[in-house]
Amino acid sequence: MLRRDDGFAGRGDDAFALLIRAHDGLSEAESAALNARLVLILAHEVGDLAVLDAAVALARHSLNPEPSPGKPSPSEPSPGETP
Fold first, then answer.
1. Which end of the chain has less neighbouring CB within 10 Å, N or C?
2. Are 64 and 8 in contact (CB under 8 A)?
3. Which tens digits make up the pLDDT trace of 29-83?
4. How far from 37 is each of 7, 31, 34, 44, 81, CA to CA, in Å?
5. Chain-centre distance of CA 47, in angstroms?
6. 45 close to 51: Cβ distance less than 8 angstroms
7. What's the whole-model pTM score?
8. Distance of CA 18 to CAs 15, 23, 58, 77, 78, Å?
9. Where is this region: Disordered (predicted)?
10. What are the structural domain ranges in the chain?
């Protein structure tokens, strides 16, 4: 199960800034490689397949969140819009 508490004890913005700074000066390919390595390192650190599975599911779901009633999803054209 994924944690729901503030894992950074109020320093979430600092954690986000650290991740952004890690990409400073990198090319797009280097940045993608850094992300891939970081994911593997952090997955190893988590060390729990159930937690990793829940995190992967949440990340994938966030790519295509379910639309609110009456609102098209980001992958669906709006009424009158051509796909």
1. C
2. no
3. 999 999 999 999 999 999 999 999 999 999 999 998 877 666 555 555 545 545 4
4. 21, 10, 5, 11, 39
5. 18
6. no
7. 0.69
8. 5, 9, 22, 36, 37
9. 62-83
10. 12-63
